[in-house]
Design goal:
By secondary structure, this protein is an alpha+beta fold. It has six helices and seven strands.
Length: about 190
Amino acid sequence: MLANLRLATLEDIPSLEILIAQSARGLSAPFYSSAQIEAKLRHVFGVDTQLIHDGTYFVIEEDSALVACGGWSRRGTLFGGDQAKIGPDPLLDPATAPARIRAFFVHPGQARRGLGTRILDACTVAAVSAGFRAFELVATGAGEQLYRIHGFTLVERFEIDLPVEIRVPVARMRKNIGPAVMVDFAPPTP
């Protein structure tokens, strides 16, 4: 049975919070210490409700359970849930700024099944349709391989300084998605 891909709703938030914690704890262990993972969950990882309000955050559900989530954004924020936001989150100009890939999480028991790819494909179709020609993101160690496989290139490595005096290494990545890509990801015509 093919898992159902759909836009997230506000009613999904409790399930998203559980999925995010399961994903972070289960898939980040090879890349981060337990202290780093728990600090990310407290201060960075979480639901960004703006993505849900904007209609740019997807979930995949299987047997009525959320097994993956992720999205794109036309706003300035590069990463972080509601707890990490400070101030306004302005809209980006698609002619001059890249759209953001945001908050991809997969249940550890569902990893390596192509769920992240399905969400990334849906994000690409939507962002190209909105006029964007590039994506930018901040990848954790657990996500960097997925993005490299899909043509993202490293822009820089840096560390996020968390309030609990823990530093978390991440990678800023970018990919061009220009209009020519739209043909590769366009939904079938009826």
